[in-house]
Amino acid sequence: MPLTADSLNPALRSVEYAVRGELAIKAEQHRVALQKGGEHAQGLPFDRVISSNIGNPQQKGLDQPPLTFVRQIASLMEWPALAELAPGAFPEDVKARAKQLQEEIGSIGAYSHSQGVPLIRQHVADFIAERDGHPSDPSDIFLTAGASAGVSLLLSLLITNPKDGILIPIPQYPLYTATLAALSGAPIAYHLDEARDWETSVPALREALQKASTDGVRPRALVVINPGNPTGSLLSADTMREIVQLCEAHDLVLLADEVYQANLHRPAHAPFVSFKKVVRDLQSRAPLVSFHSLSKGVAGECGRRGGYLECTNVPEDVKALMYKIASVGLCPPVQGQVGIDCLVRPPRAGEPSYALYKAETESIHGDLRERTRKMAARLNALPGVSCVDAPGALYLFPRISLSDSAIKAAEAKGKAPDALYALELLDATGICVVPGSGFGQKEGEWHYRLTCLCPGVDDYVGKLVKFHEDFSKRYP
What keywords are assigned to this protein (predicted)? Predict the structure, then answer.
């Protein structure tokens, strides 16, 4: 059989990933045109492309700097001789930490244990136990190539036929529907409640379960993203308890995507509580797999591909199968594992690196908090726009009212109305966002997601405001 797209796995043709879809491709074309300059850039009414489509804190053009502590550890792991060649460049606690990891790992160019370096898994378990007030076992922890790899692993185990389904929040991070499409599984949508700041609605979950039963779909797991992506929502403790009880009652595996747990804008009033803590506090038997990542928070080390998952109430034979599948990939990236060690074991008060680490992390939190507040306020002041002032994560998800003429213009071009809005925004301003239709939304509603990472927030939001005003005049 000749190699053609039609000869490949048909499930893969239905995979969609809006975060890096049509808008991102066109944004890259604009970026290349600006780099070439001259006739290539003629007609572009902006001098740079702003990639607000993806939570990529250290991307060129954004201004979240890498944490010095993480990069110093990484440097000494890459080249241990630096500790002697540049002795004044590294604090004593950094050198001691790197030496400990070197003795455990050896060269980072070598494979590690397939489940992750044992010492680093112990440190992850210590972090979880301190966070939640409940013990954690390193044997329940798998280090992964970012949280996405862990999610894909679990979904691949749970989907056994096309009638197996996973409850997914709408709007959702498209990793879940894309992975399910590749596995020929069934997404079971449940809608978040925008009127309640995108809270998870337990009645909506029950309604989704009933619909799945009517459709002949067997629910296997429930995905919860907390803090939310794309919404930035933060679950209440009461809702979390109800979710755990629902999972236990319906034999669902709870998949807790908690990668934004450190991205809190009002931590005194809206703190993060893990599902591990809720499950243990309730003494629940519900199976839980929790995911965390080096890519978000104040680290923002997306390219290192560091993450971990923890299993709670997961049978030993299931964990054995997880280990076997993880072994096929040999091991997660070792530098990513080192990054995870820095994530869960940052400098402590009194250590030489602590003062700089504290200053850097507080600056990152402060900048993100102020941008989120300012952007939400400016967007809410626009006619036809409403935006929840997100208490967590890196994004806002404003709702936009679009006129009949805009909707008809989108239909004529074969686009979703919010995709038309996003494409025209890109062409007019160089700002790349993701239309809400790429995440899922209620019929007849339109949104877009943008990050709160971009520098020069006044100029950035000013361009969004002017575009919205111009678009509203163009499509009255």
Answer: Aminotransferase, Pyridoxal phosphate, Transferase
Asked if 413 and 363 sit in the same domain, the reply is yes
Q: How many domains does the chain have?
A: 2
Question: In this structure, is residue 78 part of a structural domain?
Answer: no
CATH of residue 189's domain is 3.40.640.10
| Max intra-chain CA distance, the chain | 68
- Interhelix angle 118-132/334-344, rounded to 10 degrees, is 30
Dihedral angle over CA of 100, 106, 108, 114, nearest 10: -100
On whether residue 105 sits in a domain, the answer given is no
Q: Could you tell me if residue 316 is inside a domain?
A: yes
Domain that holds residue 456: 5-64+359-474
**pLDDT tens digit sequence for 168-180:** 999 988 888 888 8
Is the per-residue pLDDT at 134 higher than 80?
A: yes
List, as own/partner pairs, every contact residues 234-242 make where C-beta atoms lie below 8 angstroms and the sequence separation is at least 24, other chains included: 234/264, 234/270, 234/272, 234/391, 234/392, 235/199, 235/200, 235/273, 236/199, 237/273, 237/278, 239/199, 239/200, 239/202, 240/273, 240/275, 240/278, 241/278, 241/282, 242/202
For residue 279 the two structure tokens come to 């499950």
Q: Residue 49 half-sphere exposure, CB side, CA atoms within 13 Å?
A: 24
Position 248 in a domain: yes
